[in-house]
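Entry 14. Structure prediction run on the chain below.
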Amino acid sequence: MIGEVAGIHRIRMLYLQLLYRCNFNCLHCFHGERLQHADAFSLQEAINLLTLMHHRYGTEAVTLLGGEPFVHKDLPQVVRYAKQQLGLQVEICTNGYRIERRLTEIAPYLDFLRVSLEGIGTTNDQIRKLGSYQGVLSALDLARELGVRTGATMTVTSRNIDEVLPLARTLQDFGARQFKLHCLRPVGNAADHPELLVTDPVAYTRLREQLRAADLTIEVVIDEDLSADGAPEICAPAGGPREIERIEADPRGALTMSCKAVGKDSHAFWYDKLANRVIHRPSATDELTLAVPDVVYSRV
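Output returned:
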């Protein structure tokens, strides 16, 4: 259906939000009140979607998210199926809080563990949860012992923009390979915390200069909206793209292609869990009708 409607015949990666439920309630979380919703993929539904995406769209990688994916009761089975039965590259994006037992269980089938951090020490804990900073460092330590490659993600806000470089150095000391910086989008919980928005775009210029001048071994990947001029305008090829980098499935089955549309209910496609197929539900505000551009990332 995605190919017939949008001309997209290959989707490299599936971002699979297994559930909304989370043991955190971060100030900037795009899920907002949905963190309390019970929607989730069952084990069979997750297997069905992974198989469909792999066979129909050539999907070769999956990133498992939530909510918090480590609180999903069937996470180990999902990871093993994705790796052993489909041969996918498997990544998990997690808050890293008290995941040691389950991480040890799934480590042989996991290609990459990405942890979320929002600064150093109390800066992170005030945005995420008390004790979460040390929890993440413990998870990174264990992952290194288990031979699992690691990285981190951070949403740049007014509270933590001055801690990006110190955090990058801390992460590389813990053996992390990549540090990915996101732009805060005012949806979900972030809509209730406008004080987190960076109001002076010149601050992004200073941040980039600091990162370029630093002697970092960790790869830093940055959302191009984190610039004084915003992201560049990207023109799609004639007839539309035949291949996209990713599509994101939320716990209800809504499929979103652009990160800028996530959390806004502007999806044009749904995964019908009962019928095990993708369906098209166009609207005047969906991401295809509005031509919502995807996020552009680059290496610093």
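The longest strand covers residues 10-17.
Filed with the rest of this week's runs.
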